[in-house]
Structure formats: structure tokens, C-alpha cells
TrEMBL record:
InterPro entries (alphabetical): Ptyr_pPase (IPR023485), Ptyr_pPase_sf (IPR036196)
One Pfam family linked to the record: LMWPc
Keyword Flavoprotein: no
Identification of the protein by name: Low molecular weight phosphatase family protein
Keywords: Arsenical resistance
Native organism taxonomy: Bacteria, Thermotogati, Deinococcota, Deinococci, Deinococcales
GO biological process terms on file: response to arsenic-containing substance
Gene3D superfamilies (alphabetical): 3.40.50.2300
Amino acid sequence: MRRVLILCTHNSARSQMAEGLVRAAAARLGVALDVHSAGTEATRVKPEAVAVMAELGVDLSGHTSKTLWDVPDAQRFDYVVTVCDSAAAGCPVYPAATQRRHYPFVDPSGGSLARWRAVRDQMKLQFDAFVQALQAGEAPPPGHLDSPAVPVA
């Protein structure tokens, strides 16, 4: 089973949503993945993330914010995906076998639910493509897919 780690700064929004999206896509496509998310520091999972993911049938209500050191076997991942520039800059070094991807997304924190939904929808496109590539035996997209603009508010 391949292991995937999604990193962000606080593990409160983007990385939590990405974890849920990757798990949902893997279940839908029959791809065996062990998926985790973490932050460079732990805070709390934002209720807006829980709400917009519930709209897609993805339950984040039991998720907690955690750091990399709270993740089991934190140095053994097949893929490490950063979803913000801060996490990409602060990401620890992984063994050569670990493939890194950087898919930066706008931080929806403090924005309207429309902004949260727009970021979620961009992430869904990106992580569906990620899991579809794994299903096909291909390398996941090396960078961020083009997607519609996110509302400012």
C-alpha cells in the first residue's frame, strides 16, 4: 500500500481537505492508499473546512490538527504533497524514494463559504488527477493544475 502525506502550515484547512479528498478519490477508484495530513504546527481543524467537505459527503468531523511528528512512521512516505508555500519551504528532507509534489492553494481562512468552496473545488480537481494517475500506474502531476480563480472574499 502506498503512503501519502499532505503538509500545510497549521493542518487546519487545506491539508485536512486534501486528506479527505485523496481518501474519497482512492475509495471511489479502488486505489489502496494510506493517507495522512500534518502541519508544521498544530492548531485546530476549521469548522468551515468540515462544512464544505460535508457538502461532498466527506466527513472531517473526527479529524484533529497534528504535526508531522504525530503521524505514524513520519519518514516513510511514497508521496509528500505540500499545499502551501510555507510548508514547501519548511518541509523536512525525505529519502530519495519519496516523491515530492507542491500543489499550492489559496488559504480560504477568513473568507466567505464561497471562497472555501472554490478552494475545495480546485483541490478536488488536483487530487482526483493525483489519484487517477496512481490508479493508471503513472506519476502524479508534477505541479499545480490550472483551475478557475478563487473569490477574494
